[in-house]
Design goal:
- By secondary structure, this protein is α+β, with helices and mostly antiparallel strands.
- It has two domains: 3-96, Orthogonal Bundle (Arc Repressor Mutant, subunit A); 127-328, Alpha-Beta Plaits.
- It has 15 helices and 13 strands.
- It has helices at 3-13, 20-29, 32-40, 45-52, 56-69, 89-96, 104-116, 118-128, 155-161, 171-176, 190-199, 207-220, 249-253, 279-283, 308-312, and strands spanning 72-75, 82-85, 134-137, 165-168, 186-189, 203-204, 223-227, 237-241, 260-261, 265-269, 289-292, 295-298, 318-322.
- A seven-stranded mixed beta sheet has the order 6-4-5-8-7-3-9.
- Helix 3 (32-40) packs across helix 4 (45-52).
- The N and C termini lie far apart (46 Å).
């Protein structure tokens, strides 16, 4: 088996079998022996060492390196831990970009993949999945009837309920560098926080620090986004996304990929209060706001209910109104 073949196999394992860019990324981050070890996963160190023909000590050192590189993950539900490789391309993206020794070539290739290949991949994935894998968390101060907000859609309650909180750099803005928005604002909870702290890529936050970070992101016009928790799963992260650097946002907005669900809310305009300042127009990532007769108008088909437009409205003419039932999320 040639080296190119083994890296193409790794690309296939994360569901992008035809991507030469992803294969090249694997080639940069994993030498041949590490690639072979990844392909033997999942497994514990004892069984993995037999598969690759190395001692347990040698294998453990390789596993530790791959863990730091962000391409091997360990489950502590077993003793010793069970290791597995990245499940899909987004996990490979988020983990590997925070590899401390990543060269600039590695970052450049990720940007190339994001721009050239990901939009088509995202569209195919969106058509295949029964529900979008991510969703908007609304700005709670923008909601018209705050008693209706659920704990799972209130970023501040998620922070308060977490046992452990950390922040890691936004992998999208870290490599794309297309805006001057804050980078160290990807908030992780509990298991995700513990992972980033153990790996050394995260910084622990207090509840108050995390809330301050959320407010800063809202002021900057970044939207709160999280993974959709199917089957009662727990929310483990809040990304604070911009349109220009985010991996998936262009695919959602410009290519119609069904990767992102709106919140249960939709922006509404108090026409009497609107002073026609147009501050909200450029603020909306989804191009859901326009001006007509000097009044802001909302396109309900485009509005994702993030509430970022409401934060900047000087007359509080914009609010979020509940338009979907709790079952939606």
């Amino acid at each position: 088996m040639g080296e190119k073949d083994i890296y193409q196999q790794l690309a296939e394992r994360i569901m992008v079998p035809d991507s030469k860019i992803i294969a090249r990324l694997w080639e940069i981050i994993a030498d041949r022996e590490e690639a072979e070890l990844l392909l033997t996963m999942p497994g514990q160190v004892g069984e993995l060492s037999k598969k690759v023909g190395k001692s347990e000590e040698e294998t453990q050192k390789m596993l530790d390196r791959l863990f730091i590189k962000g391409v091997a993950f360990k489950s502590k539900k077993t003793d010793p831990p069970t290791y597995r490789m990245s499940r899909e391309v987004n996990q490979f993206h988020d983990g590997s970009i925070l590899w401390p020794k990543a060269p600039q070539e590695f970052f450049d290739l990720w940007v190339e993949y994001t721009d050239k290949e990901f939009p088509d991949f995202a569209k195919k994935v969106g058509e295949f999945l029964p529900k979008a894998p991510t969703r908007i968390i609304p700005v709670n101060t923008a909601i018209e009837a705050k008693q209706q907000i659920l704990a799972t859609e209130d970023a501040y309650q998620l922070v308060e309920n977490a046992k452990k909180i950390s922040t890691v750099p936004c992998t999208c803005r870290l490599i794309a560098k297309r805006c001057d928005n804050p980078v160290d604002v990807c908030i992780q909870f509990d298991r995700a926080a513990e992972y980033s702290l153990e790996r050394g890529t995260g910084r622990e936050l207090t509840v108050d620090e995390a809330k301050d970070m959320l407010r800063l992101c809202e002021e900057k016009g970044l939207i709160h986004m999280t993974m959709s928790a199917h089957g009662g799963g727990k929310t483990l992260l809040i990304c604070n996304c911009c349109r220009c650097c985010c991996v998936q946002m262009p695919s959602v907005i410009e290519h119609g990929a069904k990767l992102l669900d709106p919140s249960r809310y939709q922006a509404i305009v108090d026409e009497e209060a609107c002073n026609g300042c147009e501050d909200c127009i450029d603020r909306c990532m989804f191009e859901a706001l326009t001006m007509s007769d000097g009044i802001a108008r909302v396109d309900p088909d485009k509005c994702f209910g993030c509430g970022i437009c409401c934060v900047i409205c000087p007359t509080e003419a914009l609010k979020l109104k509940e338009v979907r039932p709790p079952e939606f999320i």
